[in-house]
Amino acid sequence: MKRTLLAAAAAGAALAAGAQPVSYRLDPTHSFVHFEVMHFGTATLRGRFGPLEGIAELDRAAHRGEVSLTIPTRIVSTGLPVLDSRLRQGDLFASEAYPEAYFVARNFVFEGDALREVRGEFTLRGISRPLALRATSFSCGLHPIAKRDWCGGDFEAELRRSDFGMSFGLPLVADRVRLLVQVEAIRDQ
Question: From CA 185, how far away is CA 189, in angstroms rounded?
Fold first, then answer.
């Protein structure tokens, strides 16, 4: 009986130890935010920010996590340098006054063992609003080169740019913006 209790206690301790959060750092070569907005009701204007900087903690066994991303608004690319310059101006991203946007989240939603959503707060131009990033794919494993734990995924969300004081061009340039976020992160040593 005593041996059974000790074995059960050891197993419980091992499970608890395995449920500890793991810290990850974003891989800037594989982490970007892409955006899409309808332009003059005809075609979708696309661009991206990045590379992103950030850290995450993930406890897959306990279905909990925390993430903090920094998005450089001064590094916006649409493929048109004149448009990139225009987007950085004060009535749009205001990149001189606000060179970075932020996403911070502590609410991870799982369905079984699958991460489905990360809910947090997005700050752009000094204005913060709730934002939910829906996972379209997410997985973890052993990085083939670094030989460390590694996670990555694709996420999507929508926001209204006017909620962040960006009303220039409305309604010719749509208010609704679709975000596509790609991230890969490797376990801190």
Answer: 12
What pTM does this model have? 0.85
Among residues 84, 73, 72, 75, the alpha carbon closest in space to that of 45 is found at 84
Instruction: State the alpha helices, DSSP H only, in the chain.
Output: 2-18, 81-87
61: amino acid identity, one letter: A
Q: What is the 3-state secondary structure (H, E, C) of 69-93?
A: EEEECCCEECCCHHHHHHHCCCCCC
Residue 144 C-alpha from the chain's centroid? 23
Per-residue pLDDT at 19: 61
Name every residue whose Cβ is closer than 8 Å to that of residue 167 and which is 6 or more positions away in sequence: 161, 175
Place of tokens 């310059």: 85
Mean pLDDT value of segment 14-27: 72
> Where is pLDDT greater, at 183 or 7?
183
Kindly report the number of other CB atoms within 10 A of residue 161's CB atom: 22
At a CB cut-off of 8 Å and minimum separation 6, what does 180 contact? 33, 34, 35, 36, 154, 155, 156
Q: How far is CA 42 from CA 51, 117, 125, 162, 173, in A?
A: 29, 31, 28, 20, 10
